[in-house]
Design goal:
CATH class of the largest domain: Mainly Beta
CATH superfamily of the largest domain: RlpA-like domain
Order of helices and strands: EEEEHEHEHHHH
Helix content: 25-40%
Radius of gyration: 17 Å
Number of helices: 6
Number of domains: 2
CATH topology of the largest domain: Barwin-like endoglucanases
Distance between the termini: 22 Å
Strand order of the largest sheet: 1-5-2-4-3-6
């Protein structure tokens, strides 16, 4: 998925400690985000459209925004700390551009390296490219999405809801 433009909101203290889709507790001071369009643990750069110099990198740790908000153009929920790098939280919503910084393939490469270092996975597994279950980080749901309108029109939010917990 290439860069996308849409709305970003934030979530903070009221969610502190709640488990995110990645299984870790939420901390509003961390630079994290919720998105349906990127695999969990993907690093994204979120840039403010009105000021290209303002951007923040965050890690996708949860799924969101709520499905009905996707139809209103909201494409990512940022942690309070990440949002504050772009605008005051009183603003509530900002127009942003999101692009992946660290793709899932980098995570797969790291997982394969860990498996080899620990002696897991045989020679046949390496030769055929067959991946062990420990390597499954998340299911990329963005396959055919080329724009936010594809996601809304194509019902990707409903598909994502069914896939969000796969491999967890």
């Amino acid at each position: 998925m290439g860069a996308e433009t849409g709305l970003a909101s934030w979530y903070g203290e009221t969610h502190r400690g709640r488990l995110m889709a990645d299984g870790k507790p939420f901390n509003p001071e961390d630079y994290t985000a919720a998105s349906w369009f990127y695999p969990l643990e993907t690093r994204v750069r979120v840039s403010l459209c009105s000021d290209a110099g303002k951007s923040v990198e965050a890690t996708i740790t949860d799924r969101g925004p709520a499905h009905y908000l996707l139809k209103q153009g909201r494409i990512i929920d940022l942690s309070e700390a990440a949002f504050k790098k772009l605008a005051p939280v009183e603003k509530g919503l900002v127009v942003i551009r999101v692009e992946a910084v660290k793709q899932l393939e980098n995570q797969r490469t790291e997982a394969r390296a860990r498996e080899r270092a620990h002696g897991q996975g045989g020679k046949e597994q390496e030769e055929t490219g067959n991946r062990g279950s420990a390597e499954v980080v998340a299911v990329p749901i963005h396959g055919e999405i080329k724009s936010l309108s594809d996601a809304v029109d194509g019902g990707i939010a409903e598909q994502a809801a069914g896939l969000a917990n796969v491999g967890q």
